[in-house]
């Protein structure tokens, strides 16, 4: 909200101070409340004092403290124009920055670092690093606004898994790259994110694409007993290869292998997969996402996900 208030304030100030004066600046530029303008007309001291008084009155009416107004006028009056227009070369700064999230408690930390700087200088192993005291800086901590909003302009969002296309990858043949997908036995439309076989820290879905036979002869719906939601911190292709190994070894103690080895007409060629999510900040967050997909896709009541 602060930029909006600043823009409204400056628009009103411009109307009062510029529109009411007969002479206009040669160029006038403003970004929110930062102004740059060229004034070719000069200004008699009487006119200058008059406008300063008007400006002081305006700020006082808006509850600005008088000492801040006077200090601003003093700073603007002390420096001659030639000095303000003189280029100032940047001074190299070798101080090591220590950046903290802003908190009233960090003020005490700043004072402690300044007072105990001599201890750093007395340590021969690090004294060369600290020719000057460390530079303490405080950044704005996360807020509800920064957590829920982004300053980036969103472009076209990529949807759908992709094959990593690595020559020796054994997962590309099994991964589904559709932009929209409805898992067997559900009415849920899944729009997979742009992930590939080599992505780590994922939640994934394994399912069976074989069509069951109606009365033992006619193809019916796709098998809905093969849905399995899992998660892994490793790259997905490593985890998928583990599932393949249990099927090839017919290790029926594992849910996935039990389905593909125990059901008639099923084989590893009917196994398919989709990546549902990635980039989780913690194990707990990944497990929560897995549980959400388990309930959403009802794998907790299917034979495979039980």
UniProtKB/TrEMBL annotation:
It comes from the Eukaryota. PANTHER family: PTHR21301:SF12, REVERSE TRANSCRIPTASE. This is Reverse transcriptase domain-containing protein. It comes from Holothuria leucospilota (Black long sea cucumber).
């Amino acid at each position: 909200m602060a930029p909006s208030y600043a823009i409204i304030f400056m628009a009103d100030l411009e109307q009062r101070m510029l529109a009411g004066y007969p002479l206009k600046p040669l160029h006038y530029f403003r970004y929110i409340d930062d102004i740059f303008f060229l004034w070719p007309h000069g200004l008699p001291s009487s006119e200058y004092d008059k406008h300063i008084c008007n400006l002081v009155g305006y700020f006082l009416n808006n509850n600005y403290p008088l000492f801040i107004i006077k200090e601003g006028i003093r700073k603007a009056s002390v420096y001659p124009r030639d000095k303000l227009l003189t280029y100032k070369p940047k001074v190299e700064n070798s101080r090591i920055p220590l950046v903290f999230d802003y908190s009233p408690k960090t003020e005490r930390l700043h004072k402690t670092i300044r007072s105990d700087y001599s201890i750093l200088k007395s340590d021969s192993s690090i004294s060369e690093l600290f020719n000057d005291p460390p530079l303490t800086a405080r950044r704005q901590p996360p807020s509800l606004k920064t957590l829920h909003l982004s300053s980036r302009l969103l472009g076209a969002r990529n949807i759908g898994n992709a094959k990593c296309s690595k020559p020796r990858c054994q997962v590309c043949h099994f991964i589904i790259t559709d932009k929209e997908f409805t898992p067997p036995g559900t009415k849920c439309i899944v729009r997979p994110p742009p992930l590939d076989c080599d992505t780590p820290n994922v939640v994934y879905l394994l399912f069976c694409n074989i069509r069951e036979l109606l009365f033992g002869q006619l193809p019916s719906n796709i098998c809905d007993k093969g849905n399995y939601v899992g998660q892994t911190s490793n790259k997905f292709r490593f985890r998928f290869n583990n599932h393949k190994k249990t099927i090839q070894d017919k290790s029926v103690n594992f849910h996935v292998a039990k389905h593909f080895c125990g059901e008639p007409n099923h084989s590893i060629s009917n196994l398919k997969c989709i990546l549902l999510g990635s980039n989780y900040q913690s194990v707990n967050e990944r497990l929560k996402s897995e549980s959400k997909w388990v309930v959403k896709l009802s794998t907790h009541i299917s034979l495979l996900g039980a």
